[in-house]
């Protein structure tokens, strides 16, 4: 999830025009860069105060870079716009795991990550495998003339489809709530496309489902619940950072998504489908 250093930055960070115009003079570089920044679009964000910024660093040639200081006319914090551009990706990942807002702003606004779809599919595969594993474990049969292999394979595809529907319901619940409260909270129209990408990226915690299943233990049900809590906490932070709203609204948005997801789970259970959901009751011997 985390990308750091200059290799992970989006194209266009800093301005090369200042180097050419200044011809080695740092004063000329700063003046030209400032002028260019004034006319440029504010496509980045300060990770401290969430104000828009036109650049993250200035290139003074010969590999000499200087991180830009936040000088927003609205609410300047006088701190570096993005200190994480010099951090190692591992450090950024650790800060993201700790749900630090600064790390989330760096990843969502100041880096270019195009792995949202792939990460979503992989997380759904992990969740589908967990459900399929629970289904097979609860339907053990010693009959040698049991279902042929492709029947179990279709069970996995069914679990994948159900997991996809439940996640879609979770996102729809969040978007519906935020759309309803939008006139009371947002001064401008929120970017729901960016929010969707943020939710997909912040669901990376589902990747922990596979190790929890591989290293099966008496505490596996507890681990699965903790993973669920971690994913929801990451989603909560992603909503708060992306839309710049308070914690209360972010929490209510998560609850709305969970409510709609639980409604769909209840519907599937009423249809007597084996869904292997996190909401399903584990067998007594699992505790």
TrEMBL record:
The keyword DNA repair does not apply. Signal peptide: none annotated. Keywords: Endoplasmic reticulum, Lipid metabolism, Lipid transport, Membrane, Transmembrane, Transmembrane helix, Transport. It is a multi-pass membrane protein. The chain crosses the membrane at residues 156-180, 192-213, 249-268. It is found in: Endoplasmic reticulum membrane. Belongs to the ARV1 family. This is Protein ARV.
């Amino acid at each position: 999830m985390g990308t750091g250093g200059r290799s992970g930055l989006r194209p266009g960070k800093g301005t090369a025009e200042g180097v050419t115009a200044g011809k080695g003079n740092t004063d000329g570089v700063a003046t030209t860069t400032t002028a260019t920044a004034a006319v440029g679009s504010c496509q980045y964000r300060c990770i401290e105060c969430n104000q828009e910024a036109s650049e993250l660093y200035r290139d003074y040639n010969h590999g000499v870079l200087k991180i830009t200081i936040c000088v927003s006319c609205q609410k300047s914090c006088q701190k570096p716009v993005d200190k994480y551009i010099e951090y190692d990706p591992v450090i950024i990942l650790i800060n993201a795991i700790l749900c630090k807002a600064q790390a989330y702003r760096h990843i969502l606004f100041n880096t270019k990550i195009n792995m949202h779809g792939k990460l979503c599919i992989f997380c759904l595969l992990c969740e589908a495998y967990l459900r399929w594993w629970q289904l097979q474990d609860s339907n053990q049969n010693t009959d040698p003339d049991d279902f042929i292999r492709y029947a179990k394979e279709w069970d996995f595809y069914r679990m994948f489809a159900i997991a996809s529907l439940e996640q879609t319901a979770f996102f729809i619940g969040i978007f519906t709530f935020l759309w309803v409260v939008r006139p009371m909270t947002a001064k401008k129209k929120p970017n729901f496309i960016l929010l969707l990408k943020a939710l997909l990226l912040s669901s990376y915690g589902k990747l922990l489902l596979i190790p929890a299943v591989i290293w099966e233990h008496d505490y596996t049900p507890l681990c699965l619940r903790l993973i669920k809590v971690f994913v929801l906490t990451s989603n909560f932070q992603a909503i708060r950072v992306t839309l710049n709203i308070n914690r209360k609204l972010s929490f209510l948005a998560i609850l709305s998504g969970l409510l709609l997801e639980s409604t769909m789970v209840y519907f599937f259970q009423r249809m007597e489908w084996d869904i292997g959901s996190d909401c399903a009751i584990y067998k007594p011997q699992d505790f």
